[in-house]
TrEMBL record:
Pfam families: Ribosomal_S6. One of its GO terms (molecular function) is structural constituent of ribosome. This is 37S ribosomal protein MRP17, mitochondrial. GO terms for biological process: translation. Belongs to the bacterial ribosomal protein bS6 family. GO terms for cellular component: mitochondrial small ribosomal subunit. It comes from Friedmanniomyces endolithicus. It comes from the Eukaryota. InterPro entries: Ribosomal_bS6, Ribosomal_bS6_sf, Transl_elong_EF1B/ribsomal_bS6.
Length: 117
C-alpha cells in the first residue's frame, strides 16, 4: 500500500536523523479542495494522513525533498506546530505536521485520472 510505504520512508528519515515521531493519523480518502494536476493527470480525490514529528531543520528539508520527488504524492505540506508551556515557562519545540495526499488510483490509470472535468 502506498500510504504505508510513504509513511515508513518518511518516518525512517526522521528517526535516522535523531528526530522523534509523535503520532501518525490516517484520515482516509477525501475529495481534494480543488482538482490537482500532476504529471499530466488530474486528481479529484486523495488519501490524507498526518505524521507529527520533532526534528531539526536539516531533517525537515530531507523530508520535503523526499516527498517532493516521490511521483505518488499529489501534494504535501510541513507545518510548524509551535511551542508549549510547561510549569509556567515556554518550551520551544520543532513539532511538525506533514499533511500528505496520495492518489487513490495508479498515476497512469486513464479511467480514474483523466484530463476531463
Amino acid at each position: 500500500m502506498d500510504v504505508l510505504s510513504i509513511t515508513r520512508t518518511t518516518g525512517n528519515i526522521v528517526l535516522s536523523r535523531g528526530g522523534v515521531i509523535r503520532g501518525i493519523t490516517n484520515w482516509g480518502t477525501f475529495l481534494l479542495p480543488k482538482p490537482a494536476r500532476k504529471q499530466g493527470a488530474i486528481y479529484n480525490q486523495g488519501h490524507y494522513f498526518i505524521l507529527r514529528f520533532d526534528s531539526s531543520a536539516q531533517t525537515q528539508h530531507a523530508v520535503r525533498r523526499t516527498l517532493g520527488l516521490d511521483p505518488r504524492m499529489i501534494r504535501y505540506s510541513v507545518v510548524k506546530m509551535g511551542s508549549q508551556s510547561r510549569g509556567g515557562r515556554r518550551v520551544k519545540k520543532n513539532a511538525k505536521a506533514d499533511i500528505m495526499c496520495l492518489p487513490e488510483t495508479s498515476m497512469h490509470d486513464p479511467v480514474h485520472s483523466s484530463n476531463k472535468r
